[in-house]
Amino acid sequence: MKIAEVENYIRKKSAKASERILNSASAKLEVAKNLIEEGVEKQKTEDFVVAFEIFQKAHSIAQQAKMIFDASIKFRLDIE
C-alpha cells in the first residue's frame, strides 16, 4: 500500500481514533515520506541498492502506521 493510500485510509477513519493515535500515525507517515525523498536522492546518484532499501523501509513504516491505527480502533487501544 502506498503512503498516500495509508494517509487517505487514516483520514477516512480518523473519527474513530484518539488524537494520540492520529498524531502517532501522522508522525510515522511523515518519517516514511522523508525516507521516500531520501530514496529519490539516492536514485539520482545511481545508488540503486541503497535507494531500494530506503524505499522498503518507508513502505514498512507506512504499513506499521496503518496496522497500529487499525489495531487501536479494533481493540480500542491507545498504542503507538
Fold and architecture overview:
By secondary structure, the chain is mainly α. The protein has one domain (3-74). Helices cover 79% and strands 0% of the residues. It is built from three helices and no strands. It has helices at residues 3-12, 19-44, 48-74.
Explain the layout of strands and helices.
Elements: H1 3-12, H2 19-44, H3 48-74
Helix pairs in contact: 1-2, 1-3, 2-3
Sum up the structure in keywords:
80 residues, 3 helices, single chain
> What is the count of DSSP helices, taking H or I runs of 4+ residues?
3
Mean pLDDT: 92
- As a percent range, the share of helical residues equals over 70%
Number of strands: 0
Strand content: under 5%
Q: What class would the helix/strand composition place it in?
A: mainly alpha
Count of individual domains: 1
Give me the strand/helix succession.
Answer: HHH
Radius of gyration: 14 Å
Question: Judging from the principal axes of the Cα atoms, what is the shape?
Answer: elongated
Termini separation comes to 20 Å
pLDDT < 50 stretches: none
* Major sheet: none
